[in-house]
Amino acid sequence: MRIFFATDIHGSEVCWRKFLNSAAFYQADLVVLGGDVTGKMMIPVVAHNGYWQVTVRGETLRLETRQELEAVQLKIRNSGSYPAIVTPDELKNLSEEEGAVDRRFSVEMLASLDRWLDMADGKLKGGDIPCILNGGNDDIWEIDDVIESSPCVSFAEGKALELDGFHLVSMGWTNPTPWDTFREAPEADLRQKIDALAAMVPDMERAIFNFHAPPYGTGLDDAPALDDTLRPMHGGAVMKAVGSTAVRDSILEYQPMLSVHGHIHESRGIKKMGRTLAINPGSVYGDGVLQGAVLELNAKKGKVGKYLLVNG
Amino acid sequence: MATEAIGGETPTLFLRKATGLVRGWSVRDSIIYAALATNFVTLGLYEFTFAGPAFPKGQFITAVIISGVWVSFLVIAYAGLVVTIPRAGGDYVWQSRILGSGVGFVLAATGWWFILWLWAPIYGNILSVQLFQPLWATLKWTWPGGGAAWFGTSNGIFIVTLITIALAGLLVSLGMSGYARIQKWCFLGGMIGFAVVVVLLLANSHASFISSFNLEGQKLFGVKNAYSATNAAAAKAGYTTSPLGFGPLGPTMLLVPAMMFFILWPNWGATLYGEIRGASDFRRVFTGMFAGLWITVACTVLCLLLIAKTVGWDFYQNLNALDYNLTPTFGIWPYPFLFAGWLVHNTVFQVALILVLSLWFFGWVGTLFLSSTRVIFAAAFDRVLPDRAAEVSEKRKVPVYSLILMLLPAAGLAAVYAYSTTFRTYTLDATLVIAVTYLGSAIAVVILPWRKPDLWRASPASRIKIFGVQIVPVAGIITIALLVFNLYEWLSNKLYFVNSRDSLIYMGAMYVLAIVVFVSARIIRNRQGIDLSLINKEIPVE
User: Distances from the Cα of B85 to the Cαs of A99, B62, B532, in angstroms?
Assistant: First the structure.
């Protein structure tokens, strides 16, 4: 069985489109998107009388026609941001009213995800090509129900999915970060969640761990060391392991066949941990490039036959 | 959900709190990194010993300024690449993505890996001549046999190079965290040392320098009237120099390829930029490299002016000419800062000055293998190298195999360098091969708007314009001109000691080795059913 795994596309529409095409492109039998599906930025497009105004990457644009508006919206979506069309009053309200930005962010994220899942229906032949999604620490809770209700993708969070003789268990939770995001938990709690998932797996030799957090200290979790103000130290030259010890210890203890991760975009790599092949394909969603891993699983031997990190 | 509005009273962007959204790194750190990379003490002074005698009619200050201006365009081109594809791995990532996997591997492997084997003995030699030789001479230590001069012998160079390799390997093994902190202190200490030299050369006259030089020369080396003896020996060897000033441009331009030995590296940190929000800020990235480069240019010009004022330009060049002819006045490399220290007749002061100035070396030597290990890792993850090349030891997180791929060949080459005086003259090979790698990146930045139009349009670099013209691709073209000019001179003019048959074979062998590794990987992986051509093939969007 050939799997394509990608992760952390953070709202990039071009990466989502590429992900939907990845099964055909890499001749994969199954595509898996690790967590952090949603974006981090929202760009207000201010509707005035007869035109729209928007600032994209420092450049202020006046859009006279709907075609121009659509082109800029696509550009914003492709970069992983959400274009939010607002009136000047709404923009003022967003700036001043407590919680208004949060609410608008949620609306835009869910609307975007809905559109994405509609696209998936056509591309994945109405569910003929299995497609698995789960949340990541940056994803709001509301996306779970939206993905769960889609007919053409499977929501994997907290489940053990049987895939042609292999078992995939998924967890979007991570160890605590300096940003205090949604799905974070102390290491001891992560370990409990992992143990509960592992209990659902009948055969570890054919198990795949799909955990958003990479294992600690494996080179799959190196991020720039930050100071107290979240500024990279020493010119960004110093990297530090920031992965999860619970994920590391559970991999070493359970020894699944394969373990796929994300979360730390700059730490693309492969690590052999005992019999387990651990992979973080990294992410460069902002460039519109879909990084991923093409993995061939050998059902007979219960091991990963071939693997390749790609920049699609 | 916590959010942040950006854009003042009328927000133009809302950020929600999410992993990885960090503030930009300190520009000061980038400046220090670039200034240490274009190290005018370890690399600059070392190169001047060769450049002056080889091109006696060339004007140093003009050449340094022309080089600084020209390399500034390289800084713009690299800043454009950094903000467009802000990835750790630098040239390897950019060239693989824009020019193709094969070109990317061959140019990155040769420029960031294989040629660093040669930089190891060069650095070892610099450690010999800027620390061990002056220290031993000042303290009049006679062990090992020959005292200070022993460090200039084949055995001396070999042993010190092994120490350098071990030191660089150890620093990579320990991790950059502690070392990065040390680098800042080294830069500060090194600048203080240079400031002391500046004060000494400013406060003393040429006459007092002659008297100090003669006094210390006799005391430490037993050479009588060393000043006159130096001038007489140079004249006897037929060497004449031009006074420091602004002479004809032609001979001065011939100095530019020599100046590249230290001025070409303000972008050395480019391979370290990862996915950090600040990396998307063109001005910030540019400022770091540009300011570092021009600190070097300013310090070099100041240093040259003060040498001319107090040491005497003709005399300084005579010292260099004798070393160039392998007959140095005192039997050791003519280190101008050692001679500046002689203006104070106090051994403790002289030793302290040598040690403080050696911080220019120690602040930079740790990065010798750092970029190489990153390129080896990237190639291993791309399955071009065996997976083992990217392995890190469980306990101490040491990149064992990538270090072996660096240390063993470097040690082997150190022996060749130390015991073959001919090979030692191939110093500029180390610059040439990296310049070829830079050429690949300069071509990449020029064709980027056509090869990856979406990526380019989304890049902040595409919005840097003068009179409506995008300056990053233009800077790329000017960088290509700089590199082609230098490559032409290095390969056509025998005075750079690069275009001899053996030197060309040595450099050619590196490219052949890189091609063999890449082609073998393709064949082996194909047999394993792994298609390496998929690595950078873009998935269709529609």
Answer: 34, 35, 22
Give the pLDDT confidence score for residue B277 in this predicted structure: 47
> Of chain A residues 24-43, which have a CB less than 8 A from chain B?
25-26, 36, 40-43
What was the pLDDT predicted at B127?
96
Mutate to test the interface with A, among B16, B272, B391 (most CBs of A within 10 A): B16
This prediction's pTM: 0.86
> Does A272 reach chain B within 8 Å, measured CB to CB?
yes
Residue type, A287: D
Give how far A221 is from chain B: nearest CA, Å: 12
pLDDT in tens, B286-297: 999 999 999 999
Query: Which of A266, A279, A283 is the best substitution to test chain B (most B C-beta atoms within 10 A)?
Result: A266
Helix H segments across B26-59? Answer: 27-37, 46-54
Nearest of B511, B368, B528 to residue B437 by alpha carbon = B511
State whether A270 and B22 contact (CB < 8 Å). no
- Contact state of A43 with B12 under an 8 Å Cβ cutoff: yes
- The answer to whether residue A233 neighbours chain B at the CB level (below 8 Å) is yes
Of the candidates A209, A304, A23, which has an alpha carbon nearest to the alpha carbon of residue B387?
A304
Segment A197-248, tens digit of pLDDT: 999 999 999 999 999 999 999 989 988 888 887 777 766 667 789 999 999 9
Judged by CB atoms closer than 8 Å, whether chains meet at A235 and B272 is answered as yes
Contact A220, A278 (CB under 8 A): yes
Q: For chain B, list residues with pLDDT below 70.
A: 1-9, 22-25, 88, 175-177, 271-280, 396
Pairing of strands A131-133, A30-33: parallel
Half-sphere exposure of B459 (CA within 13 A, CB side): 28
Tell me whether the omega of the peptide bond preceding residue A176 falls within 30 degrees of 0, making it cis: no
CA atoms within 13 A on the CB side of B473: 16
DSSP string, chain A: -EEEEE---TT-HHHHHHHHHHHHHHT-SEEEE-S--S-SEEEEEEEETTEEEEEETTEEEEE-SHHHHHHHHHHHHHTTEEEEEE-HHHHHHHHHSTTHHHHHHHHHHHHHHHHHHHHHHHHTGGGTS-EEE---TTS-THHHHHHHT-SSSEE-BT-EEEETTEEEEEE--BS--TT--SSB--HHHHHHHHHHHHTT-S-GGGEEEEESSPBTTSSSSEEE-B-TTS-BSGGGT-EEE-SBHHHHHHHHHH--SEEE--S-TT--EEEEETTEEEEE---BGGGTB-EEEEEEEETTTTEEEEEEEEE-
Cβ neighbours around B249 below 10 Å, total: 13
Adjacency order of strands within the sheet including A131-133? A154-155, A131-133, A30-33, A2-6, A291-298, A303-311
- Which A-chain residues 148-207 have CB contacts (< 8 A) with chain B? 177, 179-182
